[in-house]
Amino acid sequence: MTIRKTFLTLAGALALLGGVATLTALPTAAQADVAASKAMVDAAKAQGMVGEQGDGLLGFVGKADPALTAAVAEINAGRSAVFQDVAAKTGVSPQAAGEAAAQRLIAKLPPGQFYKPLGGSWTRK
């Protein structure tokens, strides 16, 4: 499979990373939990506490409280599931799916937020 085709497949899967597509299949209480986790993570990213990593997962730029740690773990679990699904459908590894997603996520970061490329250190965009 070509990189371009893999990237296009991942582009569709990235919509799931925001939780939008998965929310419609979840019960109302679970929707609220995912939405609350996403809101908490988005606020933490804006404050420079959480950033995007080169593997497609979120990471902590500094220390985090237990609630933020749980929210990041929930988002990362969802992302990992998407990477597994994309890998199964496209024939790439979950790692490659995550790295391709990371490229798109990092490219879309607003100025001032943090990212950490593979093998690198936290950098403010």
In terms of DSSP E residues, the strand content is: 5-15%
Low-confidence stretches: 1-24
Overall number of strands: 4
Residue-averaged pLDDT, rounded?
84
> What is the helix content?
55-70%
- C-alpha Rg (nearest Å): 14 Å
Determine the number of helices (DSSP H or I, runs of at least 4 residues): 5
Question: Which key features would you list for this structure?
Answer:
single chain, 125 residues, alpha+beta, four-stranded mixed sheet
Describe the overall structure:
It is a single chain. The protein is an alpha+beta fold and 125 residues long. Helix 4 crosses helix 5. Strands 2-1-3-4 form a four-stranded mixed β-sheet. It has helices spanning 3-17, 20-23, 28-46, 66-90, 94-107; strands spanning 50-53, 58-60, 114-116, 123-124. It has one domain (3-124).
Secondary structure: elements and pairs:
Elements: H1 3-17, H2 20-23, H3 28-46, E1 50-53, E2 58-60, H4 66-90, H5 94-107, E3 114-116, E4 123-124
Helix pairs in contact: 1-4, 1-5, 3-4, 4-5
